[in-house]
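Researcher: For the annotation table, I need structure tokens for Helitron helicase-like domain-containing protein. Please keep the output clean. Sequence:
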Amino acid sequence: MVDAWAVTDQAKLRWFRNNQTKIMADVYQGLVDAVARDANLNDIGKRTILPSSYIAGTRCMRGWYQDSMAIVRTVSNADFFLTMTTNTNWKEIQDELLPGQTASDRPDIVARVFKLKAKALLEDIRTNGILGKVVAHIHTIEFQKQGLPHMHLIIFL
């Protein structure tokens, strides 16, 4: 699955590189600015602009950050900042491991269990209102250096 994802991601990046005119990359002034300040053009290289729709791109991340800040401006200050981390000793993970296996041997199981538990937590907070009436929330899921997912959640009541 990882190889299939990598192949499709590389295909997307190749398309972006070969179709810069279609995504109107010429409207970005980075190269023009570099030439204007007499930068060494040998150090610049070939610039490829990624659209904001490319999830792993900087522009997408900046857009999400701007959206989050707009929510903060509109709703007011956050009431809770919650971090949920993976516990490799969760029963759901341990039950699925074969004898002699550890959680690091099965990142697919760890990721699935974390996703289910994160979904249940979000449902408890949003739908069941265990912290009160939620007017907005923002969350991100990241992976630690050990490969374990964790979630940062900001909650506005």
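Researcher: And a one-line annotation?
Model: The radius of gyration is 21 Å.
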